Each structure stands twice: as structure tokens, then as C-alpha cells.
Amino acid sequence: MSTKILLAIVGPTAIGKTALGITLAKYFDTEIISADSRQFFKEMNIGTAVPSLEELQEANHHCIQHKSIFEPYSVGDFEKDAIALLTHLFKENNIAVMVGGSGLYVDAVVNGLDEFPHVDPEIRLALNQTLEKEGLKSLQTELKKRDPEYAQKVDMENPHRLIRALEVCRTSNQPYSSFLNRPKAKRPFKTLYIGIDAPREIIYQRINKRVDLMMEAGLLDEARKLHEHKRLNALQTVGYKELFEYLDDNCTLEFAVSEIKKNTRRFAKRQLTWLRKNNSILWVPFDSKPEKVIQMVTDQLKTDLYAS
């Protein structure tokens, strides 16, 4: 088989993407690229559910804790790094695996990014200062005024997305949405999306259990060490920002943990909403036996290759 294939494993958080990625990487004797933007940073370990040492030893992983929270690292940076890695991996193997917790990052690799104007770092700094001083509502209000179309689509609770859109709006004096969906470069590989699915109550149970295990593993101590840097973009994420509120004496620890669970469940719901728009995903039940999933994937690959 000369066609190059990227197996993109997607699904809500805590559903078992890491385990399936390792299963497929071992079966196809290939390597894994992580597309989970929370796992890029070496200072964040427990709260991002990075693969364990044992899991990392089972298959070679890339883009896991390879950056510092003090380094700016955008989805565009990741796209370039991931494409370079795939170019290298495809010299040795016709198949590579990508495990994605961040839909935007997976899609950037599969479809390419829209072209945006260069943004002056001062604009980004000003927006971050606005977020810090005036809160998220100020950014939401500005985006609704500058780009009502994108404001209808974007996750308005995600400061990263709001700042990214507004910095483009301020730089170009045009709506962010006007830069979207322009023709993109064609990739030299095909992608098979493999989605892991489960009933909502199962997903929520798994999330709640994972949060409890994180707390037992020392997430509070990890957050305490990072607390002084809480304004950094990398730390504006579920699991840390709630504990920062506790450390700032704004709530009880019990409430902070309940907020982590609630916000993680909301995040999983947004992930599924994003994924449901993709009709090409091969969905597999979360409790499928590994050999069953392998069979489903190999059958789909044969079907896709014959159709091409």
C-alpha cells in the first residue's frame, strides 16, 4: 500500500483515546502524534492526563510535553510541526496515528489552516490585559460587535478562541469569519477519523472518576506550584483555573472540584458537537475489544482504498 494514511482518533475527553491510539500504533508498527493542546506543556502533567510512562513506552509519542508554558505555541505552530513529523514518519511507514483531544488542532493537520494576517504581539498583549482586568464578558461584547457571524459559532467561554478572533479583527479591521473557509493546500495523505463513542451518562461518569483520580494524584499541589503564573494562556484551562480560584480564597476546595467536573463535562459536550459535524468519522463503541476495533479499521481502510 503506497497511499499514506493518517488515523485520527477523536472523541470526548476521558473516553479512552490514548489506549486506542497505542493499540493501533502497535498493530500498524507506527508512531503517535498527540493533538491535545493541553498536553503540549511540560509543567502541566496531572491536570492534562498525559499518557503514563508505561503508555509512552508502549508506543513512540510526539508532541507530548515538548513545550513550556512560557513559550507561545499556536495552532499554526502545531500544524507546521505535525506536518514535518508526518513527512518523516511516512518515509518509514504508510500509516501514522494522531490522537486528538482538540478538534481545531486535528483539523488543522488534516485540512490545513485558513490564512490570517500577521498579528502585532502588542495587540495580543492588550487583549490579554483586557481579559485580566475586565473579564471574559468584555471580549465577548467586542466580538459580537466586530464579527456577529463568528460569535454565533465560536465557544464564547473559551478565552483563547476569543482573543485569536479579536486580534485578527483588530489587525485587519475585517471580521475574523471573512478569512475562514478559503481554499487550502491539499494534503499528500488520506485521513481516516476514528471516533470513540459512549452514552452521555458513561462519559460523565468517566469524567467524574478521572477528576477524583487527578485530585488523589496531587493535582492541587501541581496547581499550587503553577499559581503564580496563572495569567499565562496555557493555564487558562479546565482543572487549573478552578483550583486557582480556591487558592485565591474565592471558593471552597469542594466547590472547585465540582466546578472542574462540571466544566469538563461541558467541554466534552462541545467536543461531541464539533465531531458530530464530521460525517466521515468511523464511530466505535468505547467498550469494543481491541481486536474488534482493529478489524473495523482495517475493513474501512480496504473500502476507502478500493474506492480511491
From TrEMBL:
<dbReference type="InterPro" id="IPR027417">
    <property type="entry name" value="P-loop_NTPase"/>
</dbReference>
<keyword id="KW-0460">Magnesium</keyword>
<dbReference type="Pfam" id="PF01715">
    <property type="entry name" value="IPPT"/>
</dbReference>
<comment type="similarity">
    <text>Belongs to the IPP transferase family.</text>
</comment>
<feature type="binding site">
    <location>
        <begin position="11"/>
        <end position="18"/>
    </location>
    <ligand>
        <name>ATP</name>
    </ligand>
</feature>
<comment type="subunit">
    <text>Monomer.</text>
</comment>
<dbReference type="GO" id="GO:0052381">
    <property type="term" value="F:tRNA dimethylallyltransferase activity"/>
</dbReference>
<keyword id="KW-0808">Transferase</keyword>
<feature type="region of interest" description="Interaction with substrate tRNA">
    <location>
        <begin position="36"/>
        <end position="39"/>
    </location>
</feature>
<dbReference type="InterPro" id="IPR018022">
    <property type="entry name" value="IPT"/>
</dbReference>
<feature type="site" description="Interaction with substrate tRNA">
    <location>
        <position position="102"/>
    </location>
</feature>
<keyword id="KW-0547">Nucleotide-binding</keyword>
<dbReference type="GO" id="GO:0005524">
    <property type="term" value="F:ATP binding"/>
</dbReference>
<comment type="function">
    <text>Catalyzes the transfer of a dimethylallyl group onto the adenine at position 37 in tRNAs that read codons beginning with uridine, leading to the formation of N6-(dimethylallyl)adenosine (i(6)A).</text>
</comment>
<feature type="site" description="Interaction with substrate tRNA">
    <location>
        <position position="124"/>
    </location>
</feature>
<feature type="binding site">
    <location>
        <begin position="13"/>
        <end position="18"/>
    </location>
    <ligand>
        <name>substrate</name>
    </ligand>
</feature>
<dbReference type="GO" id="GO:0006400">
    <property type="term" value="P:tRNA modification"/>
</dbReference>
<dbReference type="InterPro" id="IPR039657">
    <property type="entry name" value="Dimethylallyltransferase"/>
</dbReference>
<keyword id="KW-0819">tRNA processing</keyword>
<protein>
    <recommendedName>
        <fullName>tRNA dimethylallyltransferase</fullName>
        <ecNumber>2.5.1.75</ecNumber>
    </recommendedName>
</protein>
<keyword id="KW-0067">ATP-binding</keyword>
